[in-house]
Amino acid sequence: MTDRKKQPRLVNEKPELYGDTLLDHEKFDGNLDAFLHRMNRLSELLEERGSFSRDEASNVLVSISTDQINKAFELTERAAEWLRIELKNLRDGEKVEGKAPVLTGQSLSRLLIADVAMTMVEGLQEQPGPELIALLMELLNVDRHRRSLGAAHSEEKDRAVQLEAQVPNVGVRELAKHVGVAPSTITAWRRDPDYEKHVKLIRRLRNGWNPFSKFREKQKRK
Questions:
Q1: pLDDT, tens digit, for every residue of 41-53?
Q2: Residue 87 neighbours by CB under 8 Å, 6+ apart
Q3: Scanning 34, 84, 103, 145, which has its CA 20 to 30 A from the CA of 196?
C-alpha cells in the first residue's frame, strides 16, 4: 500500500480525463463529472435509506479536513453497521428460491453496498474500524470461507483424536497423512491438553469404561 495521502478533489475543477497523478483506483470514474455524479448518488442513498443527514453523508464518504477525522470514523462505522444489515437481508433473501430482495426493495444490491464501502475506505485518513472491516469481509465472503475452514479443521481434529485413540503410538506423519493435515498441525494438537484428554477418554470408552456406572450404583443403593 502507498503512504501517499489522498487529496480531496475540488468541485470547481474542469471535467477532464484523470491523468497519471492519481492512483489506479482513483481513475475508475473516468472523469470528474462521473465522480461527482457517483458521489451525489451515494450521498442521496445514505440520506434517504440510511437516515444520515447531508453533512453526515459527506463525512461518511470523504473526510476533507483533519478536524473531522474522528467524526468521519464514527460515521463510517455507523454506516458500515447499516450496510451489514442490508447485506444480511440480501444474503438471507438469496437463500430463498424465487425471492428477489433487491427488486422488492428489501435490500440494496451487493454492487451498490460494495461501492459505498470502498468509497468510505478511500475517504478515511485512518485505519478502517471493526464494522467496516467486517463489512468488507462479508462482501468478499471471507467470513463464510473462514467458518468453513474452522468447521473442516474441527472435523479433521476429531478424526485425529479417534484414530489416535484406536492406534496407540501412531507416528505424527502417519496420522497426518490419514487425517489430511500437515504434520506440524498434529504436533500442535498434541501440545493441547484438551486433545490428550479426549484421546484418553475415547480409549477408556473403547475399553468398556462406563461413565454412568457409579451413578447407577448409587441409585441401586437408594
A1: 999 999 999 999 9
A2: 107, 110, 113, 135, 138, 139
A3: 145
Q: Which runs of consecutive H residues, i.e. helices, occur in the chain?
A: 32-48, 54-61, 69-94, 110-123, 130-139, 142-166, 172-179, 183-190, 193-206, 213-221
Domain-wise residue ranges, the chain: 24-140, 145-221
Of 58, 40, 42, 60, the C-alpha closest to 132 is 60
Q: Which residue has the cell 450521498?
A: 43
Distant-in-sequence, close-in-space partners of 118: CB < 8 Å, separation ≥ 6? 25
Which CA distances in Å does 189 have to 89, 167, 203? 38, 16, 17
Residue 221, C-alpha cell as written in the block? 443403593
120 near 132, Cβ under 8 Å? Answer: yes
Backbone angles phi, psi at 31, to 5 degrees: -155, 170
Tens digit of each residue's pLDDT (9 = 90 or more) over 164-211: 999 888 999 999 999 998 999 999 899 988 888 889 988 888 887 776
